[in-house]
Write a structure and sequence with these properties.
- There is one protein chain.
- The strands form 6 sheets. An 11-stranded mixed β-sheet has the order 10-9-11-12-13-14-15-20-19-17-16.
- Helix content is about 30%, strand content about 30%.
- The N and C termini lie far apart (about 55 Å).
- The protein has 3 domains: about 5-180, Rossmann fold (3-Layer(aba) Sandwich), CATH 3.40.50.980; about 180-370, 3-Layer(aba) Sandwich (Rossmann fold), CATH 3.40.50.12780; about 370-469, ANL, C-terminal domain (GMP Synthetase, Chain A, domain 3), CATH 3.30.300.
């Protein structure tokens, strides 16, 4: 078996030490050599602490050079990294750390403080963090670490990354990726992104930073107007809420823009190209498989113009396969899919939770199975109809079920306008699209900001329902 692609990153950083790795609007923040040196120093520190092949380190550090250095260090030692969000409820954080069997927590200074001596202040600010020291030793790595040596165990397959997705305190749910599955994902993103050396890339996720650095491109982690207009990046990775923020701020875009982590409408991709992007792509991905499929603005717009049902998320990336099971759920498989769920058996394929169709290599989604609304005797899948409501003037549109009489549900359309668009304008613009919904026509249309949740700020359907009740 060839060495995983992910192991190429550290040697490539060392090969061009004076070139920039991380940049801001005005300067080079970290060179490639400094990033590599930091990763080697962290590896030596972890080795001195007795961590080695098969052990787990929990990482509670904001995305950027410091976090990436820890990941590279752990890859070198073949120490598994568990990504944890310290802002989740304390009981859930405790359960996640114990489920991952973390021997060490590497944390930002503010996380350590909020979990320890600064807990009273943090609680007054509405932030409660579990006492991490009671679960595992906590390390806040200083900016300067002493030089040292560590064994290089890179090469070959091993479990590399644990990512928690959902679950409860009694049964935390996490995805386990290996060096092989991460490398396959990197290869897919590298082919899709087609990044060249020298010109910046904007993005803060691992699958934005690593392909760029492999190609010799510097990374800026903050997707904001000042950064983008100063750097003129060749590629910008954003979530849909970040994209809308940039557009509302009047940002002039350059190069290509990839939007993902939440549904991406044809209208949003059109707005990104109107703002200067040479190309705008929607990327369909999930924690268990990144990426799955991709679609550019032209193909998505054509699908909408032709009246295609559901949400076209594009063609499968090379190496990925998909099918619809007996319940209409899209199931995916490929080298880039996770190896297993934490505590579970190996996975041959992954159920996406999305209802949809697969025709050849084209995937069309018809909504989340769990989002189904039961009105009367009719099963309504919001994701099948929401794309047709994303007309000019509409930033977001959600169809949600609100509890009604006798266990029935009312179907409510919640619409968030684009900046400068009035409620009267929105209702006029949606008159024909709403009428065309037929049996899925909503009982009520509400014009209001749509609640979001999580770091990617996905539309929060449960919070939207609570807002309406």
């Amino acid at each position: 078996m060839p060495d995983p692609m992910i192991d190429d990153l550290l040697p490539r950083l060392l090969a061009t030490p004076h070139e920039p790795a991380f940049v801001s609007a005005r300067r080079t923040r970290v060179t490639r050599g400094a990033l590599a040196a930091r990763a080697l120093a962290v590896a030596a520190d972890l080795h001195r602490r007795g961590l080695g092949d098969g052990d787990t380190v929990a990482l509670a550090v904001r995305p950027g050079p410091a976090a990436l250095a820890v990941v590279l260090a752990c890859l070198r030692l073949r120490v598994r990294v568990a990504l944890v969000d310290p802002a989740v409820p304390p009981d859930l954080l405790t359960a996640r750390l114990r489920a991952a069997d973390a021997l060490l927590v590497v944390a930002d200074p503010w996380v350590r403080a909020a979990a320890g001596w600064g807990a009273p202040v943090a609680r007054r600010a509405g932030l409660r963090i579990a006492p991490l020291d009671a679960i595992a030793p906590v390390a806040v790595l200083p900016r300067r670490l002493p030089d040292g040596t560590s064994p290089d165990r890179s090469g070959g397959a091993a479990e590399a990354l644990v990512i928690f997705t959902s679950g409860t305190t009694g049964d935390p749910r996490a995805v386990v990726h290996t060096t092989a599955s991460l490398s396959a994902g990197l290869a897919s993103v590298t082919e899709l992104a087609d990044v060249t050396a020298g010109r910046p890339v904007v993005g803060s996720t691992f699958f934005a930073m690593a392909p760029a650095l492999l190609a010799g491109a510097p990374v800026a982690t903050r997707a904001r107007r000042r950064t983008i207009e100063a750097l003129a990046p060749q590629l910008t990775y954003v979530t849909p809420p970040q994209a809308r923020d940039l557009l509302a701020d009047g940002t002039r875009l350059t190069g290509r823009v990839f939007a993902g982590s939440a549904p991406v409408s044809a209208r949003l991709l059109e707005r990104l190209t109107d703002a200067g992007a040479q190309q705008a792509w929607g990327v369909y991905a999930m924690t268990e498989a990144f990426p799955v499929a991709a679609v550019d603005s032209r193909a998505k717009a054509a699908y909408v113009r032709e009246g295609g049902p559901g949400d076209l998320v594009g063609d499968l990336v090379p190496g990925m396969t998909a099918r619809a099971d007996a319940d209409g759920q899209v199931v995916v498989a490929g080298a880039g899919t996770a190896a297993r769920y934490l505590g579970g058996p190996p996975l041959d394929e992954v159920a996406t939770g999305d209802r949809g169709t697969v025709s050849g290599r084209r995937v069309v989604l018809h909504g989340r199975l769990k989002d189904m609304v039961l009105r009367g005797a009719e099963n309504i899948y919001p994701g099948l109809h929401e794309p047709s409501l994303q007309v000019p003037g509409v930033a977001q549109a959600l169809l949600v079920g609100v509890p009604g009489h006798d266990l029935d549900e009312r179907l409510v359309l919640v619409v968030e306008p684009e900046p400068g668009v009035t409620e009267a304008d929105v209702r006029r613009l949606l008159r024909a699209p709403v009428a065309a919904l037929g049996r899925a026509r909503p009982d009520e249309v509400v014009v209001a900001p749509i609640p979001t949740s999580g770091r990617s700020r996905k539309p929060d359907r449960a919070a939207t329902v609570r807002m309406l009740t």
